[in-house]
Amino acid sequence: MSEQVWLELVAHAYDGLPDEACGLLAGADAEGDDAEVVRFVPTANADHSAKTYSIDGRELLAVERALEGDGLVIVGVAHSHTHTEAYPSPTDIAQAELLGPWHFVIVSLKRPEASARSYRIVEGHVVEEPVVLVDR
Amino acid sequence: MPVSVRIPTVMRPNTGGESKVEVVGGTVGSVVDELVERYPGLSTHLRAADGGLHKFVNVYVNDEDIRYLDKLETKLAEGDEIAILPAVAGGA
Question: Given this model, what pLDDT does residue A136 score?
């Protein structure tokens, strides 16, 4: 992802406090192991909770449609952990059942400086992948 | 009753990449049956063990959530737009 996307992601995580914040990661294609996130689309946390998040289906649909018009697809989802490490929780893993192709970026706000890690979650198995900032 | 069904990106590997498919069905349930028949790979995405809808799947008819309509019994009219979406959620 670009530094711009990264800054938007972290800003949205802070904006969401005290609740968890979430948003969708858009890229040119959803195939392959690596994904270049070209746009971060902030979404509302429909749970309004510091412990869980969900994206309303209607908002998800609107985002999918809007991205399609720009030739982009959703390649993943990002959410914040307000007081814990950037590692998928049991809830994150269970909820990922149908989201195998997606990349899961978790932003931790536990420390003064935000940090992020990214994962694939396939059939209950969590595999970390590097987050690389690129110049565009 | 021909209706169009929008397939979410996460399920497109099971529809040969198709994002929109035309299906004939009088209710949402019959459309799901038809989809699974045509694309057997969708079965584990759409169906729960008890034959109902998978708990992490949401279905919208003309942007209305079927949970607030008649669920799988929701009747369809020609040209209705059905959207299948994965539930996107998690927690710390």
Answer: 67
Question: What would the two tokens of residue B53 be?
Answer: 């809808």
Which chain B residues touch A60 with a CB distance below 8 Å? Answer: 85, 88
User: A59 in contact with B at a CB cutoff of 8 Å?
Assistant: no
Closest CA to A76 of A114, A44, A45, A120: A120
A19 contacts A48 by C-beta, under 8 angstroms: yes
| Secondary structure of residue A123 in the 3-state scheme | coil
Q: State whether A83 and B45 contact (CB < 8 Å).
A: no
Nearest to B87 among A52, A95, A102 (CB): A95
**How close B66 gets to chain A, by Cα (Å)?**
11
Flag if A92 and B56 touch (Cβ within 8 Å).
no
Check A54 against B56: CB less than 8 A apart: no
Q: Which two tokens stand for residue A127?
A: 């595999």
The answer on pLDDT for A133 being more than 80 is yes
* Distance of alpha carbon B48 from alpha carbon B10, whole angstroms: 17
At residue B1, the pLDDT reads 78
| Res. A135: pLDDT tops 70 | yes
Contacts of A63 (CB under 8 A, 6+ apart): A24, A41, A43, A74
Phi, psi angles (nearest 5°) of residue B13: -60, -20
Residue with tokens 């299906």: B23
